[in-house]
Amino acid sequence: MPGTPAARVFPAGDTLDAVDLSVFFAGTGASSPSARRGLSATLLRAGGDRLLIDCGEGTQRQLVKSVGLPDLDAVFLTHLHADHWFGLPGMLKSFDLRDRSKPLEVYGPVGTKALLERVQPVFGRLGYPLDIEELDTDESLRFDEYRIKTFPTRHRGPSIGFQFVEDDRPGRFDAGEATRLGITPGPEFGQLQRGETVRGVEPSQVMGETRRGRRIVFTGDTRPSDATVVAAAGADLLVHEGTFASSEKDRAAETAHSTGAQAAQVAFDADVRLLAVTPIAARVHAGELEREVRGVFERAVVVRDFDEIELPLPDRGDPIHHRWSDRRRELAEAAGAGPAAERGAEPPGPSVETGAEQAEPAVPPEPVRSGI
């Protein structure tokens, strides 16, 4: 696990540079893949760290054809239904075929070790250390500049949610005030920013108030719950499932899932900066679901495969949602490709005019599945 603090450089005039932070949605479908949605998989990119939240069937294929398959630092499983982990054995083997040597951590709820031990013959002996750790509902893992914390969710069988909690940053450094107090620009500025007293000048005299780090919350599959509201309170981004439309509220309750509107109510109660709803069932129309969601909580999106949310520092702007269809169009234009080439790109996306997803192939009513 990346747990050894890296050396930090404090530039004059400000504090620690912001770590790039984004969430990439490799798969946004529930239960079984559709023509337009792969199964649950979300890539968290924090500086140089690459953390995968859930790993449904086909996840490595989804990554390869979009942003590439990174050398993951850790995998976090929210629960052990097949649509959230079945892509892991193949990915483990692919890393082995790439001659990976650094350890890979896999974290999940109770039962994760036994599950992966049972499927070990599928991926065979690996040439790198695979460490599996089962987590309870109130644990904290330390990384370089952030923590991953767990919280309880309400699904069938053992399940946990994850909080990304970035370390608080020092306040802004007032270079003008430091100079007025007789501090020489250069190394002395850095000493003050590191909390050292320099020639009688205390850091508190030239540093602003501590700035809160960014926070992202991932629920996995769950009923709406007070525990999620508490975990997500004031978060920059809440990634909450919305498997069903409101018309199937009873089925959502029977299968321990949430509707999009229920996810929106959780986001409203937690006062998050942005809600991303995923996964959703294949028969649910994303555009209609998004209208339901925004009827409860306006700062919300129903994400599609390969969408990305960028999270600048809170004092530098709001979270930014990048549609894959828009990025694909920009790439096609930059390459000088015409509309035909753009239409041929994978995967098909929402229409330009309305942002509504085209209807997926009709799916007949189905019995309750253990996968969701």
Question: Could you explain how this protein is built, in words?
Answer:
With 372 residues, the protein is an alpha/beta fold. It has 2 domains: 21-169 and 211-340, Ribonuclease Z/Hydroxyacylglutathione hydrolase-like (Metallo-beta-lactamase, Chain A, 4-Layer Sandwich), CATH 3.60.15; 175-205, no CATH class. Helices cover 25% and strands 18% of the residues. It contains 11 helices and 15 strands. The protein has an 8-stranded mixed β-sheet with strand order 6-5-4-3-2-1-14-15. Helix 2 packs across helix 3, helix 6 crosses helix 8 (260-270) and helix 8 packs parallel to helix 9. The chain is globular, with a radius of gyration of 22 Å. The protein starts with 20 loop residues before the first strand and ends in a 29-residue tail after the last helix. The relative contact order is 0.14. The model is unreliable at 1-16 and 340-372 (pLDDT under 50).
User: Could you say what the CATH architecture of the largest domain is?
Assistant: 4-Layer Sandwich
As a whole number of angstroms, the C-alpha radius of gyration is: 22 Å
The CATH homologous superfamily name of the largest domain equals Ribonuclease Z/Hydroxyacylglutathione hydrolase-like
Strands ordered across the widest β-sheet? 6-5-4-3-2-1-14-15
Head-to-tail CA distance between termini: 30 Å
Write down the overall geometry: globular
List the helices and strands in order. EEEHEHEHEEEEHHEHEHHEHEEEHH
List the total number of helices.
11
CATH topology name of the largest domain, in short, is Metallo-beta-lactamase, Chain A
Low-confidence stretches: 1-16, 340-372
- CATH class of the largest domain, please? Alpha Beta
Let me know the average pLDDT.
Answer: 87
